[in-house]
Amino acid sequence: MTAQSSSMIVAVLQLGYLICGSVTVLLLAGLATTAWRRPSAPATFLVTAMSICAAGWTVGVLGVAVSPPESAEPWSLVRRSFSAVTSWVAICGTVALTRRLAPATVALLAVMGLPHLGRLLLLHGPLVEYAPLFATVGMERSALLTREVRLTTGPLYWWFTGYTYLLMTGSAALMAVWAVRSGRLGVRQGLCLIGAALVGTLFHIVGATGVLQPGVDVTPLGIGMGVLLAGRAVSRHGLLDLEPVSRNVLLDSLEDCVLVVDPLGRVVDMNSAMEALTGMSALEAAGRRVNDLLAPAGDLAARLASGPQGATLEFARRRFEVTTLPLRMRTGRMDGRLLIMRDVTLEHEQELEQQGLIVALRETILLMRADREVRTSGG
Are residue 63 and residue 140 in the same domain, yes or no? Predict the structure, then answer.
């Protein structure tokens, strides 16, 4: 192969690299916009914040690539700034999604962010003169693109890099636990988000260790694959629709059976009274069709599709008065329904008993009248 042919192949690959990076930024912008338009739920924060960080990272990489070596340093700072905080944003968003943000949890997250603050100060703040403790980078031109070259590696570089990988691994672990506990509804969402986090981390490891070629940052390619997985969690598995509701919100102490379903008629959550009625935990029921969960009660999907009502149904030899209420987002879009089942078995039995007594009393009165008429006519 001639030198000219090799140069053309490199140029084509670099052009493809730019196109893939540009498409990744557009996808991230679309994902962030979609999430931003949804209510301020934990998943919205996670998707929006991670999309912004990944887009900033990718824009920095592309800015370096298309700039002359002498003017690429500002874009390098953009890339390094976003890369410095991405793992911390990931752990914060994952914790917000998977558990309640108690004051102690918030304090712990703040402490975990201190190394990232230090990294930013080394890049932009008064500690910039100590930046060589982390690393020093230079720029060199390769064919059509400029690339970063790590000239020196300071004592803090691999420590901070390992710390960021630890946070990303912790985020994936928390997401896995949340997905398992959320049942079938959350497993697919969790798998997509875990895949999105791990594939980006893996590509970053490849780029940081120079396995392919020193100075070539393949992280944007991993981010592009990750955004496709995250997009699938949003579009296919309803990540930004109705999320599993907190157990405290459902107030398990309620005697009424409470069931939450998403717009597709899938069970999202239920309280302890509903668990006792169906003999199934909320985690086991999550993701099932409401008609399958309460099959003996008939077609509940039709009930849920209608407006608020006070219909009745028979289930497990008990009679319930059913009320369905829409769950709406701030934009007014219907995002699920709340099914409240009040046990009226005793009231129904008392009503039947009263009706029976009334019928018996009427029959007795009729018999007494008939007997009096017979006696009168016979006398």
Answer: yes
User: Are residues 168 and 95 part of one domain?
Assistant: yes
Which domain does 195 fall in, by range? 3-235
Q: Is residue 88 part of a domain?
A: yes
- Say whether both 197 and 291 belong to one domain: no
The last residue of one of the domains, among 201, 235, 269, is 235
Pairing of strands 311-315, 145-153: unpaired
Please work out, in degrees rounded to the nearest 5, the angle formed at the alpha carbon of residue 89 by the alpha carbons of 268 and 212. 110
Lowest-pLDDT range of 78-82, 310-314, 364-368: 310-314
In which residue are the tokens 């893939």 written?
20
Is 379 a domain residue?
yes
CA–CA distance, 58 with 55 (Å, rounded to integer) = 5
Phi, psi of 251 (to 5 degrees): 50, 80
Q: Is the pLDDT of residue 142 over 60?
A: yes
Query: Domain check: are 38 and 173 in the same one?
Result: yes
Structure tokens at 369: 């009248």
Q: At which of 211, 235, 259 does a domain end?
A: 235
What pLDDT is attached to residue 59?
92
126 by Cβ neighbours in 10 Å (0-12 / 13-18 / 19+) ranks as: exposed
Query: Is 272 a residue whose pLDDT tops 60?
Result: yes
Q: What is the pLDDT of residues 214-242, one digit of tens each?
A: 556 788 888 888 888 888 887 776 666 65
First vs last Cα of the chain: how many Å apart? 132
User: Which of 204, 187, 275, 283 has the alpha carbon at shortest distance from 238?
Assistant: 187
Q: What is the CATH number of the domain that holds 17?
A: 1.20.1070
Strands 135-142 and 311-315: unpaired
pLDDT digits over 45-89, tens only? 888 888 999 999 899 989 998 999 889 889 999 998 998 899 999
Rounded alpha-carbon distances, angstroms, from residue 327 to 148, 188, 236, 337: 50, 23, 20, 5
Is 126 in the same domain as 270? Answer: no
Looking at the structure, tell me whether residues 150 and 106 fall in a common domain: yes
SS3 301: helix
> Where does the pLDDT of residue 302 fall: very low under 50, low under 70, confident under 90, or very high at 90 and above?
low
* Interatomic CA distance for residues 189 and 187, integer angstroms: 5
The answer to whether 192 and 237 are in contact (CB under 8 A) is yes
